[in-house]
Amino acid sequence: MAAEGARGLSQTQKVFTFKDEEESVTVTIPEVLDPEFGMYVWPCAVVLAQFVWKRRGALRNRTVLEIGAGVSLPGVLAARLGSRVFLSDSAQLHSLQNCVQSCRANGLEVREVRSEVTAGTKATVGSEVGILPLSWGHMTPALLSLPPVDVILGSDVFYSPQDFESVLVTVAMLFRKNPLAQFWTTYQVRSSDWSIELLQSLSLAVCCLLSSDWSIELLLSRWRMSCELVPLRSFDADRPELAGSRLPGNHSVQMMLVAPDNRRRSLQR
Ligand SMILES: C[S@@+](CC[C@H](N)C(=O)[O-])C[C@H]1O[C@@H](n2cnc3c(N)ncnc32)[C@H](O)[C@@H]1O
User: Fold this and answer.
1) Topology of domain 3-260, per CATH?
2) Most buried of 22, 37, 76, 267 (most Cβ within 10 A)?
């Protein structure tokens, strides 16, 4: 049932259950019915969360930063699974409040990250989540003060071509400080003439040539990064229903791993 939130907007909750034969984790995400971005769980978030779930062994006790987190399903799941998590979103929008609400709905304590927080930060793995403003393309004291990061998560952060380079500038800054880090990102192909089957059968380079908007590969090369597309079927995400949610539906979502260019070995461990 919908309830009234702090800004007088109506709130609902979405529940996601990730499970296999050994383990199951349920994450509850409050959503605010508001025309602004970041108030809902986007289809990309469920796919990225499924990847996090499948890689949970590698993420345990690792430091994870989610950018453009919005209601933060992948980051909250990572925290529930034992990662030390930092959630970030633009300081200009109301999205940081969404990050906080999602943590609280899942019994996670939150801590505002300020510039004095250093590598010796007190954050306890899996129980306290750092929240920081991080606008793409901007270097801020909070960003500089983050401890070493192993994985950067970004769900549906490539939706507006004019922001693509700013997203990658932020990732490049993080890679400079964390040369062994990876960027795990999902994006939604919003053009109606692109079927997921077609995309899965094409390399990213060919996709870039097909779309004038989709210039991300050129940008990756400019910022000295390489990427690999991860087939959805390799992490059981090639389904319209994931984690008990029909949100992926028939949206064309793609999963990509990005790393600094000097890392020649396969990104898929
Ligand atoms: C399409 S929503 C995706 C939200 C969430 N990651 C998900 O998949 O459910 C895009 C997110 O990017 C954030 N965002 C937009 N512009 C931004 C910027 N310049 N810097 C940082 N975050 C930004 C929005 O606040 C929003 O949370």
Assistant:
1) Rossmann fold (3.40.50)
2) 76
